[in-house]
Known about the structure:
The protein is of the alpha/beta class. The protein has a single domain (8-257), classed as 3-Layer(aba) Sandwich (Rossmann fold). It is 51% helix and 12% strand. The protein contains nine helices and seven strands; from the N terminus they run βαβαβαβαβαβααβαα. It has a seven-stranded parallel beta sheet with strand order 3-2-1-4-5-6-7, with helices on both faces. Strand 2 (32-37), helix 2 and strand 3 form a beta-alpha-beta unit. Helix 3 (67-80) runs parallel beside helix 4 (106-133) and helix 4 (106-133) runs parallel beside helix 5. The relative contact order is 0.13. The site of nicotinamide-adenine-dinucleotide has 32 residues, from helix 1.
Amino acid sequence: MKDFKGKTAVITGAASGIGEAMAHKAAGLGMNVVLSDIEAAKLKTVAAELASFDVEILPVVTDTSSQSSVFELADAAFSAFDHVHFLANNAGVSGVALGHAWEITDEEWQWVMGVNWYGVLYGVQAFVPKMITGGEDGVVVNTSSIMGLNTGRSSPYNVSKHAVARFTEGLYYDLKVADSKVTAALLCPGPIATEIVKSERNRPEAETETRDPAKAAEIKARREAMYEYLQKEGIPPSDVAEMVFDYVARDEFYILTHPDLIRASFRRRAKGIDAGNPLPLPGDYVAEAKEKREN
Ligand SMILES: NC(=O)c1ccc[n+]([C@@H]2O[C@H](COP(=O)([O-])OP(=O)(O)OC[C@H]3O[C@@H](n4cnc5c(N)ncnc54)[C@H](O)[C@@H]3O)[C@@H](O)[C@H]2O)c1
C-alpha cells in the first residue's frame, strides 16, 4: 500500500506503546483512525491527543480476547467508514507467571493466548472478509515478537507469539492464493520502551500466580528489572511506527525492529534443527540453572 491519506486504519492496543505510536503516525499520514483498546480512560486520552489532526478518530473499547467484542469493533469501523485499509492486530500482554512448562496455570495460558493469539485470529476473521470484498488495497499487520521467531523457554507469551508468526505467514500465502488486493505483514519487535511488562493491569482473573509471597516477590523483582531494561535499552515506540509504515509502503513482509538480534536468534534455532539436536541452550539459561544448583 503506497498511499495512506484519506484511508482508514484500525489499531488494537492503541492506548499505549507501539499501538499508540502507530495511531499517531497513521493520523499524521492523513488516515482516519479507529483506536481500540481495553483501557477506556487511556483510549479517551489518546483520542483527545489525535483530535488536532485533520482526520476522523473513533475510539472503541474492545477486549481482543473476546470474539464478539472484536466483531463489534469491525461493525463499528465499517459503519463509521466506507472501508478499512490498514488493520494492526497489535494488542498484547506479557503474562505474569514465572515457571516451568508444567507449572503455569490454565488461567495464565488462557489470558495470554486469548489476547495475543486469539485476538489476532479474531481480528482476521472479523475484518479480512470485508477488506477483501471491498476490492481496495489493504494490509493486515500482526504484531508478533522476536520471541515469535526464536527458540527459548516455554512461556505462554513465547508460544502465543510463535502462533502469530506462523499464522501470519500463512495468511500472507492465503491472500496471494485468493488473488486479493489485501496483503499481510508480520511485525517482530525486539526490545521497545513501552508498558508491556506491566500488563497484569489488564489481567481479568484473580492473580493466582502471586498468592505465594515468595513467588510474588520474585515476579515483582523480575518485572521491575525487565521494565528498567526496556526503558533503558529499548527503542522508542515511535521508531517502530515509522518502520511499520515504511515497510508497508515497500510491501515487505517481515518488519524486524532489530534485524541483527532477531536473525542471530533465529539462526540459533536453525542450527539446532540442522544439527538434529533440539536446542543449543543460550548461555543465560545455563548460568541460571547453575546458580540455582549452587544456592
Ligand atoms: N515492548 C516490547 O519490547 C515488545 C517486544 C515485542 C513485541 N511486543 C508486542 O507489541 C505489542 C504492543 O505492546 P507494547 O509493547 O506497546 O505494550 P503496551 O502495554 O504499552 O501496549 C499494549 C496495549 O494492549 C492493550 N491490551 C491489553 N490487553 C488487551 C485486551 N484484552 N484487549 C484489547 N487491548 C488490550 C493494553 O491496554 C495496552 O494499551 C504487543 O503485542 C507486544 O507483545 C512488544
